Every structure is written in structure tokens, then in C-alpha cells.
Amino acid sequence: xxxxxxxxxxxxxxxxxxxxxxxxxxxxxxxxxxxxxxxxxxxxxxxxxxxxxxxxxxxxxxxxxxxxxxxxxxxxxxxxxxxxxxxxxxxxxxxxxxxxxxxxxxxxxxxxxxxxxxxxxxxxxxxxxxxxxxxxxxxxxxxxxxxxxxxxxxxxxxxxxxxxxxxxxxxxxxxxxxxxxxxxxxxxxxxxxxxxxxxxxxxxxxxxxxxxxxxxxxxxxxxxxxxxxxxxxxxxxxxxxxxxxxxxxxxxxxxxxxxxxxxxxxxxxxxxxxxxxxxxxxxxxxxxxxxxxxxxxxxxxxxxxxxxxxxxxxxxxxxxxxxxxxxxxxxxxxxxxxxxxxxxxxxxxxxxxxxxxxxxxxxxxxxxxxxxxxxxxxxxxxxxxxxxxxxxxxxxxxxxxxxxxx
Length: 406
Description:
Elements: E1 9-12, H1 21-36, E2 40-45, E3 50-55, E4 58-63, E5 70-73, E6 76-78, H2 86-96, E7 100-103, H3 108-120, E8 124-127, H4 132-138, H5 141-144, H6 149-170, E9 175-178, H7 181-191, E10 195-197, E11 222-226, H8 237-247, E12 253-257, H9 263-269, E13 273-277, H10 281-290, E14 293-296, H11 305-312, E15 317-319, H12 324-333, E16 351-353, H13 359-367, H14 370-384, H15 389-398
Parallel strand pairs: 1-2, 1-7, 2-4, 7-8, 8-9, 9-10, 11-12, 11-14, 12-13, 14-15, 15-16
Antiparallel strand pairs: 3-4, 5-6
């Protein structure tokens, strides 16, 4: 149950309709407010422009971006002319009379949220959803890969500068949220602000196991990836894993769900792969149901919604030791592969945490042992059933600061 006396929340998400973690969380946050009758105003960018019909306790103001908006990702933009909506946003926010303003990052929406929190002298809270500093470093690789050790220093310098810049923005908030403990510690050190966990939930009715497990040790294995096909997701590892598995005598097929700049590279180098593009809803759930394992090589994800969706579908995941996906597996089992039993494996694991060079051996061991794979499927589903959005947002609101003037 949400905390008694829940505050009136003005929510300014960076993203709402797009296909990414911020948008996914934002849609579920507004749905949570509606379910529990919590007054919420959601100010967001979208195709419509103007006040949307009220839905229970939820009010929404949706504003279109201008043709001069700068594309940050395929489905993300920053509009330098968003300030033209200042009066409209001001009127809506002042009429709503929020107790707290919640932002999700240094976008044009986040800047507006921080501005109005200061103007109205009410608490500002900020949740961290994307490792922008790591993205900045990795996107220098078009240059740094040609510079040897100097290139690595360049990436580190860009990453450090980006972190300092973003931390200065987040320092405006009284309370911060992050999807995993390591990020909470990083933010607390960088901003001197308290940081609380804001994890993710999953729809276990939409995402559920296939009626009957399909794979046997001698059958063709379907390996899946879901997410943006970009350099920061480390997707160029997938063809290397495919080659290593074939050298081990396996015949994997790949189901690559998503879009991005690395798609053409993957098409050239994964001969046995299907690319259905971006999927949502039942189509996405059906894709998970076809997989035997989710292979998720990202080192930069703050949480990993797709990992949790795969677990809910009874699909174990292979992830790197860095970031949120590893935290999901560790919180499910309190151990990683190699830490639970003498030979490094446990049937209570919903997946495996492995370094890049260990992905192929880890995959091979799982898919060639049907009993182990069956146990891991059960462990994956059991963990996901405990991850509800209500639990996530109950904790978020409980950590909101008092609503006295600041």
C-alpha cells in the first residue's frame, strides 16, 4: 500500500512514450498513481500538445517538440526551444499546487522541473536512470580506438567531465534515487545528497513462461538480445560469442529485438539471426517466450528492464559484472556464478554473471544441461514474481522529503 498522506506529485520525465527504461518506468509510475488515487501531474513531451483529459487522480500536460529538436538517440531528442511553453507549464503547475516535484534527468523537462521547484519553494527529487557519463566516454571510441593508451585516457577524461556536469545538476535535488546500490554510492559521493533505491517492477501476467520448454541438449538453441543496438550496449560482442559457440559444436540461432546504429554490423556478422525490430506488448512477450537464454552484454545499464522481463518469462540471463543487470541476479541469489558451489554453478541461479570472454562457456554449460536449465527457469520466474511496481513506488514515495518550504 502507498504511504498514508501521499503528497501531490508534479512529475517531469525525460521520456514517456519512447522505448527505453525511463519511459517504461514513467508509464508505470503514472499508472501506480492512478491505481492508488495519488494526485499526480505529469508534464511530458509527446505528439499531442496541450492538457489531456483527466484520468482519475492523474492530470497530464503533453507538449510537442519543435523541428529544431536535437536528436540524442533514435527515439530521444532535446528541444532548445522548449522554453516557449514556460507560461503554459507555469499555469498548470501552479494550479495543481504540488507538494514535491520529481524529475528524471537533465533534459528540457528536468530543467523546467528544477526551475519550478525553486520558484515555488517546494522539494525537488531526482531519479537517475541513464549512465550518461559512461555513454559519453564510449561514444568517443570512434576516435579513441585509434589513439592507444591516449585514447583510453581520452575516454576516461570525457566520462569524468560528463559525470561532474550531471552531478552538478542532480545536486539541486534534496533526495536522489538510483536503480542499484553502486550508483547510489556514486551519486552520494558526487552530490553529497542522500540516495535511495528505485528499482523496477515487471508485469508477470504479460511476461510469462512458454507453455512447454522447448530446448534439449541436442536441439538448436535460440539466444536472445533485447535493447538498443548501440556501442554502449556492447552488442559487438554477440558475433564473437556466436563464433565461439560454433567452435564448441553448438548451433545457436539469434533473436535480436531492437534498433540502433550497430544493426548493420550485426546483420553482416550474425548469419543465423532474426531482426524483428522494436517490439512491444504481446509481440515482445512472444519474443521472450521463443528464447532459451537472454544474452545481455551491456556494461552501462543502470538496471536492465529487459533482464527482469526475461526472468518473468522463465528465460535465464547471461550478464556482465557491471551495473544493474548483475545486481538483479545477485539480489535474486546473493551470489554470482562461481561463488555458490564447488564447481561454480547453482540451480538456484536465475542466470549467470560472466566477463565478456566467459560468455560463450557460460552459455554452453547452461544449454547443454537440461536439468540445470530447467532449475534456472524456475528460479527466474520465482524471483520475478516478487518484483511488483507497487513495491517499487511505495518505497520511492516513502523516501520523499517533508513538504515544508525549502
